[in-house]
Design goal:
By secondary structure, this protein is mainly α. 80% of the residues lie in helices and 0% in strands. The longest helix has 34 residues, at 100-133. The chain contains six helices and no strands.
Length: 152
């Protein structure tokens, strides 16, 4: 029984680390495109920024989906503003002169492809397992308990 608990704990920590990795990557690309965490928080709703949610380990896949959509919405608005003003987005990493939205989508696509199908298959299985096994609020509270147990 104890070994099964350790396996579940390890799987949960791995899943949460993957979510944090994805959120932090998307945040970094968004910041490159001129989108701040505060802008994302306001667009996606909620009180905490991505960093706060990651630090508290309260990230859930639905929130990452929401921030991705929020980032895309903000970037589309910025691109529309640039087009209206006759400007183009200039950044040292944007060598192909893409819009912010195109740059963000391409970078996320490359990151996802580099992770590979095996990674995403396992990630999807973990997502399904944790989603249907436990309510998310319980996962975050359970994770907190597990982390406190390992600290002592």
């Amino acid at each position: 029984m104890e070994q099964k608990k350790k396996i579940r704990e390890k799987d949960l920590l791995k899943f949460m680390a993957e979510l944090e990795d994805e959120a932090r990557f998307k945040l970094a690309i968004a910041e490159t495109c001129g989108v701040s965490p505060t802008m994302i928080r306001k667009e996606a709703g909620g009180q905490d920024t991505i960093d706060k949610k990651a630090d508290k380990m309260t990230l859930i896949p639905e929130y990452i989906f929401a921030i991705d959509r929020a980032i895309k919405t903000i970037l589309m608005e910025k691109d529309d503003d640039d087009a209206f003003e006759g400007k183009t987005w200039v950044h040292e990493e944007n060598v192909h002169h893409k819009t912010r939205f195109q740059y963000y989508c391409d970078e996320v696509y490359i990151w996802e492809r580099n992770k590979g199908s095996v990674y995403w298959r396992e990630h999807n299985r973990a997502w399904s397992y944790w989603r249907y096994s436990l309510p998310y609020w319980y996962i975050t509270h359970k994770l907190k308990e597990l982390l406190e147990d390992t600290d002592s």
